[in-house]
Amino acid sequence: MFRIWAKTLKNGKITRQYVYENTEKLDYSRFFDYVREMCEHMDIPTPVIIKTHLFNYAKFNTVSFSSQDFMEKPDFDKLVLENALL
Question: In angstroms, rounded to a whole number, what is the distance separating the alpha carbons of residues 11 and 77?
Answer without folding.
Answer: 7
